[in-house]
């Protein structure tokens, strides 16, 4: 099977016992492939892997889908990455977004996205209009993160593009997340788990999806719960 999981609040969330059990499983069962699908940048994920005993994924989709890296070689995955780069308008996204009232720019080095913090003072409608005029998408998440991404690029899109190259059977894929920037992973139709303590809007938006389990347990516990729930993953526990 392949587990494509968000990091913060999902793979990195839950009780210490659940995390230990999930990580142990992934360390010892080489039949489970792992992909991280995160809003973090690659530098932040590499630091995390250095500092912890986390299982190492084969691929890392970072920047809410805007970059995809093969971890053993640290190479960008082609042609997926070039296709994303071709959709990105470039540096003038940041310049143009300066017009939006109430946006705080995130100080992270980024290539094919622009990230901000927002709050109730932020002029979201003007941000949305500017994004659209640049043929970009705007993604709001966790009530505080605002991302501008190349049009049509998101976690679900890039995961699908990557899986096309890997040619894996559809029914052996489990996606996991906890906030609104994960919704496109469920929209792919892959089996999925919305872990416990997820963003309320994500829980609401996935409530009618029969291929998605809304787990009770938070973080890693929710992933384990889903592996027990869906018959095709049970043998991997
Ligand atoms: Mg998360």
Automatic annotation (TrEMBL):
<dbReference type="InterPro" id="IPR023214">
    <property type="entry name" value="HAD_sf"/>
</dbReference>
<dbReference type="InterPro" id="IPR006379">
    <property type="entry name" value="HAD-SF_hydro_IIB"/>
</dbReference>
<feature type="domain" description="Sucrose phosphatase-like">
    <location>
        <begin position="2"/>
        <end position="230"/>
    </location>
</feature>
<dbReference type="InterPro" id="IPR051518">
    <property type="entry name" value="Sucrose_Phosphatase"/>
</dbReference>
<dbReference type="InterPro" id="IPR006380">
    <property type="entry name" value="SPP-like_dom"/>
</dbReference>
<protein>
    <submittedName>
        <fullName>Sucrose-6F-phosphate phosphohydrolase</fullName>
    </submittedName>
</protein>
<dbReference type="GO" id="GO:0016791">
    <property type="term" value="F:phosphatase activity"/>
</dbReference>
<dbReference type="Pfam" id="PF05116">
    <property type="entry name" value="S6PP"/>
</dbReference>
<dbReference type="InterPro" id="IPR036412">
    <property type="entry name" value="HAD-like_sf"/>
</dbReference>
<keyword id="KW-0378">Hydrolase</keyword>
